[in-house]
Write a structure and sequence with these properties.
This protein is an alpha/beta fold. The chain has a six-stranded parallel β-sheet with strand order 3-2-4-1-5-6, with helices on both faces. Helix 2 links the parallel strand 2 and strand 3. Helix 1 packs across helix 14 and helix 5 crosses helix 8. The chain is globular. The structure holds one RNA strand of 85 nucleotides.
Length: about 300
RNA sequence: GCACAGGUGGCCGAGCGGUUAAUGGCAGCAGACUGUAAAUCUGCCGCUCCUUGGAGCUACGGAGGUUCGAAUCCUCCCCUGUGCA
């Protein structure tokens, strides 16, 4: 199988498509927002035509109302990989979401999924006394507390949640190890455009999302959620968050666009940090739609 | 032209005689991250040099001045915004 990583806007999608077509492959998306139906423009999902030419997996597999998790991704993606392999096709995993990719390749420890009500209570506590939770965690699982910064509330809450619901420490659960993906030879290709060019491309792309109707897409998605209680977290995603500000009258369109551009750039930066430490990645300089990058990638796939 | 309000490090913005290379925030760079991860968090962030710790240089529109000491006070000048003409 082939795994393509890289920051947003680096052209991963078009490289994946090119490889899949050339080598009779199927694409497994690794994107924590593209799993949701209806989130089209802001996620830059591959166009329908492309999805008809080449089979895509892990896109449109959840509704906004049901929150997707890394564990669900792991199971569903592995299932998809097995099926693709059984068909004798080449799996092409295209990843933007580092955590999901790591979960897929290395597995997750056997920890429980999240418990929203518990989190709600913990968050309320945290709001009252910010340092309290970290101290609580230190008592429950000193090793985990040492590894998590006192300001990193989501991770502290998760660690406490794991301890409380599994009746074991997160540290001991981790020691049980994870189950890495087996049965595939993995070729990792990293798409790495020059920084300034990437940022320029990201800004154009974010602008275009708004030109293409991101705000109205968001409005439609929001309407589908009307009366369903708390807004699903996906709406905090890049672009959708800013589009909502326009809908709520909190920001001018131009301001929202600028904010979205900024957020995308920041995100790309974080992705690069994440993927840089991914082992055994063959990094190709340039965009995924560059002919040269595609040629070199194809060459590697052919070799493998 | 007069009257106010201002001009601070890439940007926004605090400071309003010494403890100030100058609080914050943003951007930038580097990093962490096992079920919200497009989330969250950390470090660095004027320049140069040496080993931690320091040393030197440059800096708060410009030019002068007051003071042991000024981003902070005074004078003149330049620029910006607002109001009145």
């Amino acid at each position: 199988m082939v795994v393509i990583v890289g920051p947003t806007g680096s052209g991963k999608t078009s490289l994946a498509l090119a490889l899949a077509e050339q080598f009779s492959g199927e694409i497994v998306s690794c994107d924590s927002v593209a799993v949701y139906r209806g989130f089209e423009i802001g996620t830059a999902k591959p166009p329908l035509a492309a999805r008809q030419r080449v089979a895509h997996h892990l896109i449109d597999v959840a509704d906004a109302g049901e929150s997707f998790t890394a564990g669900m991704y792991l199971r569903q993606a592995r299932h998809a990989l097995a099926e693709i392999a059984a068909r004798g096709k080449l799996p092409v995993v295209v990843g933007g979401t580092g955590l999901y990719l790591r979960a897929l390749l290395q597995g997750l420890s056997p920890a429980p999924t999240r418990v929203p009500e518990l989190r709600e209570r913990l968050r309320a506590l945290a709001a009252r006394s910010p340092n309290h939770l970290h101290r609580v965690l230190r008592r429950m699982d000193a090793a985990a507390a040492a590894a998590i910064h006192p300001n990193d509330m989501p991770k502290i809450i998760r660690a406490i949640e794991v301890c409380m619901t599994s009746r074991q420490t997160m540290t001991s659960l981790w020691k049980e190890g994870r189950e890495p993906l087996r049965g595939f030879r993995i070729l990792r290709i990293g798409v790495s455009p020059e920084r300034a060019a990437l940022y320029a491309r990201i800004e154009l792309r974010a602008q275009r999302m708004f030109d293409d109707g991101l705000v109205s897409e968001t409005q439609t998605l929001l309407q589908a959620q009307a009366g369903a209680g708390e807004l699903p977290f996906v709406f905090n995603s890049l672009g959708y968050k800013q589009a909502m500000r326009v809908l709520n009258g909190e920001a001018e369109l131009s301001q929202a666009i600028a904010e979205a551009q900024q957020a995308h750039r920041n995100y790309a930066k974080r992705q690069m940090t994440w993927f840089r430490r991914e082992p055994d990645v063959l990094w190709l300089t340039g965009f995924g739609d560059d002919a040269e990058v595609q040629r070199r990638a194809a060459q590697e796939v052919a070799k493998a």
